[in-house]
Amino acid sequence: MTSNVLNEATEADMPVLIKEARLWCDNGWTARIIKNEDDEGWAVEMIKDGEREPALVGPWTMGRDKKNPKPLDASAFNTLVKTASEFRQRQVQQLHAALHQNITINAPSGRISVTLDIVADEDDPYALLTAQDATDEQLAQVRVSPGFKLSKASANAWIEDGFRQPR
User: Fold this and answer.
1) 122-156: pLDDT as tens digits
2) Alpha carbon 1 to chain centroid, angstroms
3) How far is the C-alpha of 19 from the C-alpha of 153, rounded, in Å?
4) For residue 52, what are the CA distances in angstroms to 49, 82, 84, 152, 162?
5) How far apart are CA 132 and CA 114, in angstroms?
6) In what order do the strands lie in the sheet with 18-19?
């Protein structure tokens, strides 16, 4: 009896594998062939397990009958997974770059690194403007608007103003 319970738990924990002409689920991804809303063709959407929105939607090839989509196969699915994974990685890098900016200023007191870290809270978004010296000691930190524009000029002005709250 113990082995049956163990087998049931193992089966429940296993990921779902579907390999159909218009739907593949494997390796943490789902590829679904859908009717292209923009024209008479077909599209494929790639959805990462656990996410609601597709990570990637792109055109899909028509089949030989010129009416139905070409069926998914292992090679196409693997290519789609690779493309969608790379696309997601670029999105994460772009988001990180947009939310975390860094400028180094050569001030009279030495090199000062000024960072702007945007906290994209749905209810109360804000940003933290932080200054650190060359030894990574924090010199100042203030809360600013998420729309604050970090530039050499704004960082210099903040330093010259004694790290007071920017206007």
Assistant:
1) 899 999 999 999 999 999 999 999 999 999 999 99
2) 45
3) 56
4) 8, 19, 15, 40, 46
5) 7
6) 18-19, 23-26, 29-35, 42-48, 56-60
Residue type, 145: S
Rounded CA-CA distance 31/114 in Å is 43
Express each pLDDT in 86-112 by its tens digit: 999 999 899 888 899 999 999 998 999
The structure's pTM equals 0.64
What is the model's pLDDT at position 15?
Answer: 63
Q: Comparing C-alpha atoms, which of 12, 69, 11 is closest to residue 40? A: 69
> What is the C-alpha separation between 104 and 154, in angstroms, rounded?
12
**Residue pair 133/139 in contact by the 8 Å Cβ criterion:** yes
State the residue for tokens 């809360």: 143
Q: For residue 102, count other CB atoms closer than 10 A to its CB.
A: 14
| Rounded distance between C-alpha atoms, residue 19 and residue 30, angstroms | 10
- 28 in Cβ contact with 10 (< 8 Å): no
**Distance (Å, rounded) from C-alpha 122 to C-alpha 93?**
20
32 alpha-carbon distance from chain centroid: 21
CB-side neighbour CA atoms (13 Å) of 67: 1
